Structures are given as C-alpha cells and as structure tokens.
Request: fold
Amino acid sequence: MVGPIPNPLESLLPAEQTLPLLLKGQKAIVTGASSGIGRAVAIALAQAGAEVVVNYVGGEQPALEVVNKIKAAGGRAIAVQCDVSKEDQVQAMFQRTIKELGTVDILVNNAGLQKDAAIHEMTLDQWNIVIGVNLTGQFLCAREAIKEFKRRGVKKDVSVSAGKIICVSSVHEVIPWAGHANYAASKGGVMLMMKSIAQEVAPYRIRVNSICPGAIRTPINTSAWNTPEAYAGLMKLIPYKRIGEPEDIGRATVFLASDLADYINGTSIFVDGGMCLYPGFATGG
Ligand code: BGC
Reply:
C-alpha cells in the first residue's frame, strides 16, 4: 500500500499549465484581478480563450502587469478601475466592457477583503467596508451582469448558457471564524445570495455558483503561511497537507464557467484541500 506523501507541502502540479480552450469567444469580468486569486483566475480564463476585464481598485500597475501577461500569451485583456461597492462605478465598468468587448458572458465576483478584529473592538467602519465590498459588491456586479445576460440571451456558438456568475466565497461561508465576524457574515451572505439569485435566473439559462477557497497562498493571509511555524499550524487544518495555490482556484473557475459544467447551478464548490472535513477528527473523537 502506498502511504501518505512524505513531504507533501507543495502542489505537485506545474504552476503554469496549458488549459483547454473551453472559453473561446467568451468575455469575462474578473473583479479584484490585480493580485491573489483574482489575478490567477484572470490568467486562467484567458488561457482558456476568454477575453478578460482585469478589474482593480487600487494601483493600476499590477493590473497592467496582468493585462500584459495575458497579451504576451496572445490573449486579449483590458484593465478597468472600479470600486465594486460603488453602484455608479460598477455600472460604468459594465458599460465600458460592453462597449469595448461587445458583451459579458462570465462574471467572476472575486473582489474581497478582510478587516479583522475581536467582536468587542470591531468598528462600524470595519464591519461596513467588509460587507460593502464582499457582499454588496457581489450583488451590484451580479445585477449588472444579469441585465446583460437577459438582454443577449443564449448564443449557442459561444456557450449553451446565457451567462455564468461565479462568486468567490470562502470555506467561511460554513466555517465560523472567531475574530472575523464581519468576513464570515459577508461570506455566509454570499452563499444565500448566490443560491437565491441562481433560483431566480435559472429559467433564463443563467448559471450562478460559488467557489469556496480554503487557505490559498495570497496577500490576504500572508501571516498564515509565511513562517515555518505558521505554515505548520496551518497544515493542522488541511488534510491534503499543502496550502492552496491561486492556480488551483483558476482551474476550478475555468471548469465552472465552461459548458462542461452546464448542469451545475446554485452550488458551492469547495476548493480547500479538505479544510471542511473537520480535520481534528482525523485522530480525535
Ligand atoms: C481567508 C483566508 C483564510 C482562509 C482559510 C479565506 O477565506 O480570506 O485569510 O486563510 O479563508 O481560513
């Protein structure tokens, strides 16, 4: 019998993989795409043939680097600044996308942040910013995307669906998280918002799903993995014994956005190395 991999701390997949052209001819908006998960998702969608809007809110430079990387590989991308928690900015981003790319087939609602605090010290600002970006931002973008999906309808040569929304949620849509009540509330909210919208728009052949990442190596959680001690502590929470890479989420997003996933609707797909499997019970109980 083959035992556990002795030192399974890294992904055994190459970071850069060739992806099948599952999204050829489709136009995608990825929010928060200048770093972390959003960056990897934008690059993966482009590798799969989509034209991509690389949304960013802060520095333009990292967004342009993503755009240039996509272009250098023969793809098409534009960088569009927009704070997803602001209605007028979201509407302007969709208008510009439709003007420049013609339509939107895929929305990846990825922009998100953490403002961690003990509950008795959490300020209303910390609460409002997290709910504003992580939950209201996803609503505002989903609403504009659905308007466009309904206007255009199905174009079978592009996709058998009129449009796809992928909400980047978190394992914390189901795992409570002390010290992060605002964040967990936002992701719990994303779960039922996603399912309710999916139920409502399914008859228009619009698919709405979530991807729930576990611990992924990105700037949002650097302190959870950037020292050997922190990494060892993190591994106690991950049965698969490696941190997730942003590309793990990129690949899952390509699949979920593609017609291969046509009958998947209103579902949360956990991409977490088993973080939700109550790892304490591997030995306890
Ligand atoms: C959070 C990370 C965290 C991970 C697992 C994510 O949603 O943003 O900070 O490491 O969940 O707990």
The domain at 27-219+245-279 is CATH 3.40.50.720 (Rossmann fold). Residues 114, 170-172, 214-215, 220-221, 224 surround beta-D-glucopyranose (CB under 6 Å). The chain has a mean pLDDT of 96. The first helix runs from residue 36 to 47.
